[in-house]
Structure formats: C-alpha cells, structure tokens
Amino acid sequence: MIEAQTLTKRYGAKTAVDSISFTVQPGKVTGFLGPNGAGKSTTMRMIMGLDNPSGGQVIVNGRPYAKHKAPLHEVGALLDAKAVHTKRSAYNHLRAMAATHGIPNSRVNEVIELTGLGAVAKKRVAGFSLGMGQRLGIAVALLGDPQTVIFDEPVNGLDPEGVQWVRHLARDLAAEGRTVFLSSHLMSEMALTADHLIVIGRGRIIADAPIQDIIDGQSKARVRVRADRPQDLLGPLAGDGVSSQVLEPELLEITGVDPRRIAETALRTGVLVYELTPLQLSLEDAYMQLTQAEVEYQSHSLSPTAPDTTQLTIPVEGRRP
Amino acid sequence: MSAQTTTSPSPTRHAPRPSSGITFSRVLRSEWIKVTTVRSTVILIASTVLVMVGLALLGAWGYAQLAQSINDGSLPADLQAQGPGSPAVDALTTPSSGLIFGQLLIASLAVVLIASEWATGMIRSTMVAVPGRTPALLAKTVVVAAVAFLVGLLSALVSYLIAQPILGSQDLDFALTEDGVLASIINTGTFLALVAVISMSLGILLRNTAGGVVTAVGIFFVLPVIMQLLSGLADWVTDAARFLPGEAGNKMVAVTASEGALTQLQGGLVMGAWALAFLAAALIVTKKRDV
C-alpha cells in the first residue's frame, strides 16, 4: 500500500509534482500514466526516498520508505534500468544489493532464474541491452520478496516476449495480494495490465479510477450519424448536455444522446438516416482527452489547417479497448 | 481484463524474515563486495603497492649511492655542504618514501569508487537498499580507508624489508626498533587511510570523478606549493601551512622531528581532524540533498 498526501516537488521555480494525493491498493495492478515530464518518475523517486518532497509526504506499507528496518523486503523498485555499475557483473551487483539485508545467495540465484538472466549473469553489465538491464532492475526489485513493487516504465526496451513476461509478472504479483505500481506513457500497455489507473499531467492528478470507469467516463454516448438533412435533426435533439459536430455535409457526431432517440427523431422529422454508429472510446482516446491540456511537450502538426482538437474528432471505430 | 486477478486478493503481509534487515556489518559486507568485484579497482590497488615499493627501492639505492660517494670522497663540495640530510638519517624514511605517489593513487581510487556510483547511476541502487544513506557512505569510507591503510602498511613493510640489503651495502641498514621507524611504517598506512577519507568525502560532495580527483590533488599537492610561494608575505602563512592536511600528514611519517614542526602524533591529529571535518560535511550534505 502506497499513500501520498499533498506530495509536492519543486525544482526552483518549476513545480514537477503539485500537491498530489493518492492511494495505491494491494491486490491489484495500479497504472501510473502520464505524458513525458508529467512527474511520474519524480513521484516514484520520492516514494523510494531518493528525492525529498518539497511538501507533503508519502508512506509505503505504513511508514516512509527510509524508516523501514528492512526496506528491500517492503518495497522493490525498478526506477531506471541502468542504476548499476557497468563494470560489475549482474551476479555481483545482485550479491552486493542482497548483502545489505543479509539476503542469502540462494535468493540471488532464484531471481536470476526468475528474470531469465542465467546466461548473462556473470557478464559485465556494460554489455547489456536495455532489455537485459530492465530484467536486472526487476531482479533487484524482487530480491527481498517485497510486499510492494514499483516499476518505472518496465517494458521500455523489452522485446515482445519480455513485454508479455512483465505483464504476467505484474498480474501474478498482484494476484498474490501485493501492491503493484507501474508507470508508463503507453496507454495500450496499461489497458492490458492495469486494474486501476492514476493519470497524471503536469504534476497534477487528472484521474484516479478503475480503468473501465476512465474509459466510460470519457465516452458519454457518442454517436456518428449520416443523414441527408442533418440540420433538421439537430433542432429537435438540442438540449442539456447534447453537443454535435458537423464533420462533413452529411456526417455528424452527436454527443449526449443515445442512438434510439436519434432514430426516433429522424422518424418523426422524416430525415433519412443511413448510418447510426455508437462510438466507444478506447483507453487511448480517453487518455488523450484527459491529458490533452496537460502535455508539457506537445508536438504540433505540420499542416497549417489541422486544428489542435483533431484528436477529439477522429472516428474511433475499430479501436476498441 | 482483470477478472482473474481481482478475485480474492490475499493481502497477506510478506513479513520480513527475522534474520533479514539492514545492519552496519551487512552494509560493510556489501561495500566490500563492490570494491572487490570491479577489476580496475583491484588492479589499481595492486599497482599502488608495486609503485610504492618501487619508489622506496629507488630511494634506498639513491641513499646507498650517495653514501658511497661520500665515503669515496667523490661527492661534489656543494652537495656535501648542503642540509642536515646525512644518508644515514635520510635512509630511515625509505619505507614511507612511496607515499608521494601512493597518496595520489589512493586519492584517485577513493574519489573514483564513490563518484563512479553517481556516474553510472549505481548510487540510486545503493540508496534504495540503504535509504538511511549515512550507513552506506560510512561503510564505503571504512572499507576504502581500511584498504588504504593496508596498502600503506604493506608497502612500507615490504619496502623496509627489501631495502635493507641495499642499504646494508653501505651500513645504512636499520632496525625496526629504532626511534620512530615502526611508527613511521604504521603511519604510512594511517596517512593513506586519512587521504582516502578526505578524497572519498570530496567525491561525495562533488559527485564527479574528474572534479574530485582535481580537488584532491589541489589540496594535497598544489596548496602546499601555493602556501610556500606566499610564505614571503607574512609569517602566519608559514605557520598555517603546517596545518594543511598534506603537510600535517607528512609529519606523521617523519622519523626525525625538525625544529618547530609538528610531531608524528600532532600531525596525525591535525590530519585526522581534517578527515573528520570533510567526512561530516559529506554526510550532512548527502542526507539533505536529493540522490
């Protein structure tokens, strides 16, 4: 269990993490999602006691990380893949880490097997690929068989098999009742792994909810309509919470009304409707909508005609979550 | 997507095994593993011993040559007139004569061992494993100081032993029991240990290998020279120069105390005080800064 209360980190005039409060529950995988520079890594570093908060506090398993007597048994963290002396072998790195807690060499060998590092364990870390570095980082995180695990961008640099492995590992750890906190900027990855999402942008929490709620919350019944006289439909439908967008002369997107009411209105007004498609938002779209205003480094389209809101209006069929 | 895992999670505490947890001796062991598992570190330590012994042999040979010249009467008059240094007295410093180079290598080693943790990112693993930070740095300092002490002691002892036959050829050989000799040999180790502590503290404060090595060289080698250049300006400069870490340290291994200079013990206390001050600053700053 990780509990953050009004956690804040300022670097000079810049606020990287802005008074965030959240709880990461045991028994499920919680995704920590946000664009680059949103404050994910800074938050994780504060959880692990590497950065001192400018305000607020964060506790893990009941107390600040640094106050635990055997911290590696409480929390295992992969913060960055290559937090390792490159001239040392993976095996010796693990041995040095294990020694601080009196963890026996047998456990070192176990995590080497578990993470599939057996073939390279005696080699110097300098020659490791990013993916092997990630595996070593995860091996370190698992050394103490901790109740809580924190992985910062764990699938970075992993091959597809490795990505699957991390996914299963995270799910298995959660199924054993552990607290699993994963950060990512890839919503598709979170959709497959996480049960619960905390979405962060510009140092603030934008959403903190079960993953399905986030998808649902962002997709108020949106319907795409093709009709011969769209304007005649919109008048009778107008009302609270209903908005529409004319995409083409005969193509509309209506938000806030269910398809049946649109069909009834069309029948009554004699408008010919030849497409009526309910749109479901993917997690990716939900995420884009949530974080759009919060992206720190936004890329701009090269085309001068493309409006900033394109993402809101692209059709989303075929991208079901 | 979560059906199979959200069912009946068992929030059992995986309680830490009673035998497990951070203790200082375990952190020491971890730092020992770190020092011994990087090949370049081991090579640097071994070469320090070789270089120190080599320099001492060179010194012994030099004293023997000098003594022979004096005995032959072939020594140039101006050299003969010079200074208090009779070969017999100078020869007593043979065991510690590798220090000039030894302190350079040990200073570099100490800076590299800690600054490379920042350079490689290793420091984050270290500080996650030992989040109290102070025990980790203290353990590393103890390990490196102990290695430095043994390097100094071993070099001085080996130097003493293999210099004796060379010196003996001119009757310059001496016993361990002569005044100050054994202390000088032991203090060769003590001096290097304190050099290691100061250098490690610099590495911790600067978090940068090149900056740390340059600063250490500045303190041990350049500062005394600057003070000497300035000594004409005022008497207090000369007075103060005696208390520089390098100068005070050199007195720890001096066998004959010259007039007005610090004794072995005083030199040791002054240098020890410097080491403590640097270490305290390093530990306090690390506790407060982000890793």
Descriptors:
heterodimer, A: 321 residues, alpha/beta, Rossmann fold, Alpha-Beta Plaits, six-stranded mixed sheet, four-stranded antiparallel sheet, elongated, B: 291 residues, mainly alpha, 13 helices, 74% helix, disordered N terminus
User: What's the CATH first level of the largest domain in chain A?
Assistant: Alpha Beta
CATH topology of the largest domain in chain A: Rossmann fold
Sheet with the most strands, sense and barrel status of chain A: 6 strands, mixed
SS field, number of helical segments of chain B = 13
Q: Quick one: CATH superfamily of the largest domain in chain A?
A: P-loop containing nucleotide triphosphate hydrolases
Question: How many strands, which pairing sense, and closed or not: the largest β-sheet of chain B?
Answer: none
Beta-sheet strand percentage of chain B?
under 5%
Portion of residues within helices of chain B: over 70%
Sheet with the most strands: spatial strand order of chain A: 5-6-7-3-8-9
**Domain module count of chain A:** 2
Q: Give the uncertain stretches of chain B in residue-range form.
A: 1-16
Largest interface, per-chain counts?
A-B, 56 and 47 residues
Oligomer: heterodimer
C-alpha geometry of chain B: globular
Mean pLDDT of chain B: 87
The CATH level-2 architecture of the largest domain in chain A is identified as: 3-Layer(aba) Sandwich
- Cα-based radius of gyration of chain B, to the nearest Å: 24 Å
Lay out the secondary structure.
The complex is a heterodimer of chains A (321) and B (291).
Chain A: E1 2-11, E2 14-24, E3 29-33, H1 40-47, E4 55-60, H2 71-74, E5 75-78, H3 90-99, H4 105-114, H5 130-142, E6 148-152, H6 160-175, E7 179-184, H7 187-193, E8 196-201, E9 204-210, H8 211-218, E10 222-227, H9 230-237, E11 243-248, E12 251-255, H10 259-269, E13 273-279, H11 283-291, H12 310-313
Parallel strand pairs in A: 3-7, 3-8, 5-6, 6-7
Antiparallel strand pairs in A: 1-2, 1-4, 8-9, 10-12, 10-13, 11-12
Chain B: H1 3-6, H2 24-36, H3 39-72, H4 77-81, H5 87-90, H6 99-120, H7 122-129, H8 134-168, H9 181-206, H10 209-230, H11 235-241, H12 245-253, H13 264-288
